Amino acid sequence: MPDPAPSTLPAPRLRTRFTDLLGIEHPIVQGGMMWVGRAELAAAVSEAGGLGIITALTQPTPAELAREIERTRKLTDKPFGVNLTILPTITPPPYDAYRRAIVDSGVTIVETAGSSPEPHMEFFAEHGVRVIHKCTSVRHAVKAERLGVAAVSIDGFECAGHPGEDDVPGLVLVPAAADALTIPFVASGGFADGRGLAAALALGADGINMGSRFLCSAEAPVAASVKRRIVEASELDTRLIFRELRNTARVARNEVSDEVVRLLAAGGAFDDVRSLVSGARGRRVFEEGDLDAGVWSVGLAQGLIRDVAPAGDLVRRIVAEAREVMLRLAERTSG
C-alpha cells in the first residue's frame, strides 16, 4: 500500500497535564520499540507535537546511543525521550553507561520499562531527568509514583509485548489507574486513532502511548512486508506466548509463534523454545521482511490500522479525530 502524501497542516494543540509536564503540544507518545525507536521515527513524532522515543538498547553501545541522540537533534528541536528497558538477564547491558550517555547528551525525558526503575531514580533525579515508567498494573503504577517518577504509562491487556499476568484490559485499567494516581499518566495498549485518544481522556488518562500504530508508519525502520501484514491483519491475528511460564508476551501470529504456543501447551520448558524466540530472529523479521523468521511484537490495535502513513500525519490526524469525537459527543448530549 503506498504511503499517503504527508500533510503540513498543524493540528490545534490538545493540552493535558502530560503535555504541560513535558512541554509538548499533543498527548501522544511513540512507544519505545526495540529495533524500531530510531532517530527518524522519534524526530517525526516530536516534530508533529507528540513525544518521540529513541530505544536505548537498540543501539549496541552507549556511544552509539549518544550518536543516535545527536542524529535526532539534527532532525527536530522539539522534546523527545529515550526508552531504557530494564530486564533481568544473564549478561545485563551496562545500564550505568547507557544512563550516563543519556544524561551527557542532555536528554531530560526517559521512559523506563521492565523491572522497577528504583535503582536508576537517584541518578536521573540528580540530573533533572523526568522519568515516565511503563507498567501493567495499578499496584505497580502506585509504587512507581512513590518512587518519584514524573508520569506513568500503563499497559492494558491489549498491548504488544508484555501485558503482565493480570489480563486487565484498558477499559478497566485506565479508570482504575486514574482513581489511584495523582501524577499524570498515559494509557497504552489498543490505541490507534482519535477515537481511542478521546476514550482514554474520558477514562481519566492524560494521553496515549502507541507502538503498533507507529510501527506501521512511513518512518519506522522495518520492512514493507511487516507494515503490509499489519494493515491486512485483524485483531484476531496475535498470539499470547509464554503463558505457562508466567512471562506472557503478545506477538504476531505466524508459524513460529504457533509452534511456541504448541510446545509450551504440551508441557515444554523455555529451553524447548529458546531458539525459536531469540531476539536475533525477531530482528530478521523487521530487517529482512521474512514474516516467519521469528516472533515479533504487535498489539490488538492492528485490527484498527488501515494504512501506512507518515508519523507526523498520524499525530495530526489522531488529534483532529479526537477533537471531532469530543465535539460530536458534546453536541449529542447537550440540551
UniProtKB/TrEMBL annotation:
Source organism of this protein record: Streptomyces violaceoruber
Alphabetical list of PANTHER family matching this protein: 2-NITROPROPANE DIOXYGENASE, 2-NITROPROPANE DIOXYGENASE-LIKE PROTEIN
Bilayer-spanning residue ranges: none
GO MF annotation list: nitronate monooxygenase activity
Domain of life: Bacteria
Name the UniProt record assigns to this protein: Nitronate monooxygenase
UniProt xrefs under InterPro entries: Aldolase_TIM, NMO
Keyword Flavoprotein carried by entry: yes
Keyword vocabulary terms for this entry: Flavoprotein, FMN, Monooxygenase, Oxidoreductase
